[in-house]
Amino acid sequence: MSESLLHGKVAIVTGAGGGIGREIALAMALAGARVLINDIGASLGGEGQSGTPAQQTKLIIEQRGGEAAISTDSVADWASARSIVTAALDHFGRVDIVVNNAGILRDTIFHKMTPEDWTSVINVHLNGTFFVSRAAADVFRKQESGAFVHMTSTSGLIGNFGQANYAAAKLGITALSKSIALDMTRYNVRSNCIAPFAWSRMTSSIPAETPEQKARVERLKQMTPDKNAPLAVFLASDAAKDVTGQVFGARMNELFLFSSPRPIRSVHSAEGWTPETIATRALPALQSSFMPLDRSGEVFSWDPV
């Protein structure tokens, strides 16, 4: 990876203590960026745990000749998220890139999901993405430049079992990113999403009991977190100066561009509609274009290579 692609830039990467976040932080450092590693050292479910994963990421960057600093503030609180951006300014004097990667999982079937299951995931993923982005927006607007890279998921873009909280947050992030792109393009600020495919802490809780589930897990294990890093570095760089408001995917050696919802079929009635005519005329016309009730694993059904 070119060491000059991000030369002189400062990147904030949340959830950079391991997995995809760590690989993105390492790749950005190799591309020349100084990196603020944000990680609270929490477990997959968001609980505190011992150890300093952010220190490990920092050590690797420094061993490779890069420069990094650490923030342990939570993204899920307005004031704390602003402290993350302040830390980058204090350490490096500027901010050019924000990668919103921090996340937790509280997977459970919808009709058993508790309010705490819902709010904890929404707070980290969706609120956290807004809080950190909003804090950086003040800096980006003043300097009239900046790049946001947000992590979404096919669980939200397509669907998955037992992830109503996670899916809602991740699809919400795509709408947030598009709004940021629309509102801040006048300031030369870009905002894009990545739907990453990787075996990491966030996917290690996937059940592997049936032969089909075990086969899926084995496919996932082939998709190492580092496969997502080149796309993140590109989107953060000036090479992507004309790319904004888009949703990409990275799956092993494949790259995807996802569509946004658009009208796909319409019906018209000069007399207007009643519930009865919707049932007898509109439904038969529209039903053949209904989206199937499928899941991410069924859409991406081929083995990655």
TrEMBL record:
Residues in Ketoreductase domain copies: 9-205
Domain of life: Bacteria
SMART domains attached to this UniProt entry: PKS_KR
A Pfam family reported for this protein in Swiss-Prot or TrEMBL: adh_short
SUPFAM superfamilies: NAD(P)-binding Rossmann-fold domains
Gene3D superfamilies: NAD(P)-binding Rossmann-like Domain (3.40.50.720)
Entry similarity comment: Belongs to the short-chain dehydrogenases/reductases (SDR) family.
Record's protein name: Oxidoreductase/short-chain dehydrogenase/reductase SDR
Source organism of the structure: Acidisphaera rubrifaciens HS-AP3
